[in-house]
Amino acid sequence: MGLEHVFTDKFNNVFSLVLTGFVIVSTLFSVLLVTLPKQYNPYDDKAVKFVDEQGNELEVKTKDGKTPLRWKQGRTVQIVVLGDIGRSPRMQYHALSIAKHDGRVFLIGYQESEIHPDIVSNPLIEIVPLGAAPEFLRSSSKLLFPILAPLKALWQALSLYRALGYGSAPARWMLVQNPPSIPTLAIAGLICFLRNTELVIDWHNFGYSILALKLGASHPLVKISALYEKVFARAATHHITVTDAMARVLKDDYGVTAQALHDRPASIFKPFNPKQRSKFLSQLPETAQYAPDLSPSSKIPWKLIVSSTSWTADEDFSLLLSALSTYSAAATSNPSLPKILAIITGKGPQKAHYLAQIRQLNQEKKLSNVVILTAWLTPESYAALLASADLGISLHTSSSGVDLPMKVVDMFGAGLPVVGWGAFEAWPELVKEDVNGKGFSSAGQLAEQLVSLFGADGDLLERLKDGALKESGNRWDDEWDGIGGELFKLL
Ligand SMILES: Nc1nc2c(ncn2[C@@H]2O[C@H](COP(=O)(O)OP(=O)(O)O[C@H]3O[C@H](CO)[C@@H](O)[C@H](O)[C@@H]3O)[C@@H](O)[C@H]2O)c(=O)[nH]1
User: Fold this and answer.
1) What is the mean pLDDT of residues 173-187?
2) Where are the alpha helices (DSSP H) in 389-457?
3) Is the CB of 400 under 6 A from ligand 1?
4) ipTM of the complex
């Protein structure tokens, strides 16, 4: 056999290998191209229908008054939250505001708890549920975190890619809640690039600052997460934030321009008159048995305090428990101090941990003048409970220092004065000291505030109530229309 035969055989083998590789790669590439998500086309972007406030379809005509107007351009928005839609009030309010101005909304997130009834009944809002990650990926073990977290992120990336790319029509805008940032920002950025959609990030906080609560600020994953957030922030064309302080951080550290759209209460939150209050308190299963004690006609009316939470690491409820034990002891030595009914509403990971602490304090008889209950209420009952309470409590510590607790906004909407953890930069953007609330920075200080507001300083509580009632006049619609309406070109 000649040398040239060896070379020819070898060449043939290599050539057929290269050819096979080329066919495989080009087939994969063609499949990818063919299955890419459909691009946004403004001429296809029709509102489903035009409805009045009751949801009745309206026939909208063109300027000549004869031809029915069947579509308007550029009014479709994908709203994305990698969390439970029912527990994402701000994203639900965005959806309602966009739909109110005839925009069509795809609301994408987990469907776990009850969604705002106005969203469910709105024909312009379609809910696109994300599939939950398998149970084993949801473990909260710190030890397994470095292994499970990337697997969970991969699972979430695939389900987000499917929901954003195929589960909803191409949209002109995509409004994404941050955090969670991983993998949300990367997938949202990719889909927007592929679909010709403009990305808007709604900054509620910084993802890396929440991760730092779990792993410590110097952990490499926290550093990677901070870098990731900075890089993908650039994929967005617009940024909105919950505070002016956060917009400033984005400008200084991320080099992007953002506009603050402050949280304001939705219309479901409104003050109660005394009759509405007593009716509600005697009907709600959690309060019914205490309604006579809470009534102003009782000898020393109990005080009702409410805190709401997602039971996450950024809220230290042992502070409230410790303050309530101190208060209880003070009420034993000073019988003119009223008893307290404290209701903590919400769902979340650390609830069982704090329920155990409450049981322990009760066993030790440290809460003899205080009853602590926990609850998860319908949106209407939650709003009514705030409107019936005497004082709201916020334990939100703000992992970044520049985000704010939504619960305080709810409380102001219901005309409820607030005392809250106030040792962070953005707090004064929401609560005015001694006007509509008070800030504390330790359990001892909170206990002192409870003793003084419910005891000698009853006048101050009245003043704070007036301040909160005044604050309840600032509404979400006014804030949103001025900023969101303009951004999404809806007004
Ligand atoms: N329906 C219902 N909702 C409840 C209940 N209890 C609490 N909630 C909902 O849960 C929210 C409080 O959840 P948190 O997770 O404690 O929110 P936050 O700290 O007050 O604020 C969050 O959102 C802000 C942006 O809007 C963020 O800036 C902030 O960092 C945080 O993520 C309330 O505003 C309310 O919507 C209940 O019993 N029933």
Assistant:
1) 96
2) 406-413, 443-454
3) no
4) 0.96
For the Cβ of 345 lying below 6 angstroms from any atom of ligand 1, the answer is: yes
Structure tokens at 322: 């410790």
Instruction: Read off the pLDDT of residues 9-48 as tens digits, 9 standing for 90 and up.
Output: 888 888 888 999 999 988 888 887 778 888 888 777 765 5
- Residue of 119, 242, 284, 406 best suited for mutating to test ligand 1, as the one with most atoms within 8 Å of CB: 406
Structure tokens at 167: 């589960």
Phi-psi region of 74 (alpha: psi -120 to 50; beta: other; left: phi over 0): left
Domains of the chain: 60-264+478-487 (3.40.50.2000), 274-474 (3.40.50.2000)
pLDDT band at residue 320, thresholds of 50, 70 and 90?
very high
Ligand 1 binding pocket includes 376 (Cβ within 6 Å): yes
Assess whether pLDDT exceeds 90 at residue 70. no
d(CA 407, ligand 1 centre) in Å: 5
Atom of ligand 1 nearest to the CA of 346: 6
Mutate to test the pocket of ligand 1, among 82, 84, 87 (most ligand atoms within 8 A of CB): 87
DSSP H or E segment with residue 419? strand 418-421
Per-residue model confidence (pLDDT) at position 387 = 98
* Long-range own/partner contacts, residues 156-161 (CB < 8 A, 24 or more apart): 156/82, 156/130, 156/183, 156/184, 157/183, 157/186, 157/187, 159/130, 159/131, 159/133, 160/80, 160/82, 160/108, 160/130, 160/184, 160/187, 160/188, 161/187, 161/190, 161/191
